[in-house]
Amino acid sequence: MKLAIVGATGLVGGQMLKVVEDLNFHFDELLLVASARSAGKQMEFMGKSHTIVTLEQAVEARPDIAIFSAGGSTSLEWAPKFAAVGCRVVDNSSAWRMDPGKKLVVPEINGDELTAEDYIIANPNCSTIQMVLALCDLRKRYGIKRIVVSTYQSVTGSGKKAVDQMMAERAGETPDMAYPHKIDLNVLPHIDVFQENGYTKEEMKMILETKKIFNDENIAVTATTVRIPTMGGHSESINVEFNEDFTLEEVREIVANTAGVILEDDPQNNVYPMPLNAHNKNEVFVGRLRRDESQPNTLNMWCVADNLRKGAATNAVQIAQKLVDSGIVS
Ligand code: 2RA
Description:
This protein has about 325 residues and is an alpha/beta fold. Helices cover about 30% and strands about 20% of the residues. The protein folds into two domains: about 1-125 and about 310-325, Rossmann fold (3-Layer(aba) Sandwich), CATH 3.40.50.720; about 125-305, Dihydrodipicolinate Reductase, domain 2 (2-Layer Sandwich). α1 (about 10-20) links the parallel β1 and β2 (about 30-35). The N and C termini lie close together (about 5 Å).
């Protein structure tokens, strides 16, 4: 199995490599792919030195699976070229997510829908992945009518320049600005670009991707996405209205048994999910489970995950693993 990591030198690319190692994802040959600027340089991985190759060289090498985290325009141009040589592309950008001909996959939810016809597979947006995973088994049991979500997102979601901005501000230096405003000691109700309807693109991703992953156009979703000066992961306040009533006891049991989710809900002992604890973990953490007493059949929850892990690298590597386990790639 020949595996290519496209965008290997980026923040998410680095996490992809850690996750490949962490999850023991088997490969026989590894291609580390980056821009022409990095090509030719050496990169260490699992005790071996690898020469970084260009996209052209990677296509010529005909990998079996390529995990892309190189931005939307690179994906739009190059994913089809990889697919044309028989490679399965798992793409972390937003380029293919809403393409009706491409699957948007969270393996625990719809990984079984992958078939031999799928050559370009989209990895959902980080803030969407953790929310749908937290809700998927509750949805099976009670049905979902409406979701109201507000996010508190890590600066790592905007890449290295944003992390550098925050750190420079903390050190009292003049940063190269990734955001339109200071981020340290601040909160920006603004992630990605504003759309004509007043929502940001990040908010619309949460709305549209949730419907696509759950294959349900009738779920009502509204989102407010917010950047905060933290690094370990994204946090979300989720208010979900079910079709049926529930007991908190059963909700706890369902969440605790949801694959990839860990219940951390003991407020009396100050136990609840936090980005500091979710950092570098592959799971989604859920807590603060309580009834919304203002209307029937409605639950409040707090959900945290490392956006570079389950929100990006972990989910992508799990999709690749699913392709292997299902025999689509051998
Ligand atoms: C963010 N959703 O956190 C983005 C990253 N894909 O900005």
